[in-house]
Amino acid sequence: MAEEAKWYVVHTYSGYENKVAQNIEKVVENRKLHDLIPEVRIPMETVTEIKGEKTVEAEKKLFPSYVLVKMVLTDDSWYIVRNTRGVTGFVGPGSKPVPLSDREVEALGVDTGTQTVRTDIAVGDDVIMVGGSFDGMSGTVSALDLENAAADVTVSMFGRETSVTLPLTQLRKED
Q: Where is the NusG-like N-terminal domain positioned along the sequence (predicted)?
């Protein structure tokens, strides 16, 4: 096709994101419309929650009730997506879908996965170090680096305050 496929945002009923994506993909497969609708995505993020010594990773939807569809906008592709069970409509003024700009696609992280770390530890908390060379020592969190799942902890060593950077998995909040 001469026209390039662009990303569009489709609004769905709450909790129907996976079903809508599967149904669109099934119709595309059955009707062999890969040239019109090459990709359907549900923006997800991997969330790592660290509580005490337990680390749990989970996939969470970045935008509940929304599905991203990369398609060439024609009457056929619009009809297929719009009439999929669970779809309430396209995001855009009136009934005309508006494609995402390149900057919006990049900001949404459509082509890359994102990872988020969550922890019950905050700056100023007293913590006990578990494992590693500081095992059993206590200190105070002076900074958090959630991007790298680490924290700067101020500990008292040899009568001086010293800052050490440790992974969040080696820290446990003092009770």
A: 4-112
Q: 3-class DSSP state for residue 165? A: strand
Q: Name the nearest CA neighbour of 28 among 68, 71, 91.
A: 71
How many CB atoms neighbour CB 95 within 10 A? 9
Q: Please give the span between the terminal C-alpha atoms of the chain, in angstroms, as a whole number.
A: 63
Beta bridge partners of 20: none
Residue 59 CA to residue 173 CA, distance in Å, equals 25
- H or E stretch covering 148: none
Per the model's pLDDT, the better-predicted residue between 46 and 76 turns out to be 76
Indicate yes or no: pTM above 0.85.
Answer: no
For residue 110, the model assigns a pLDDT of: 64
- Shortest CA distance to 81 belongs to which of 131, 145, 10, 140? 10
Instruction: Report how far residue 131's alpha carbon sits from residue 143's, in angstroms, rounded to the nearest whole number.
Output: 20
Reply yes or no on whether the pLDDT at 116 is more than 70.
no
The predicted structure's pLDDT at residue 168? 84
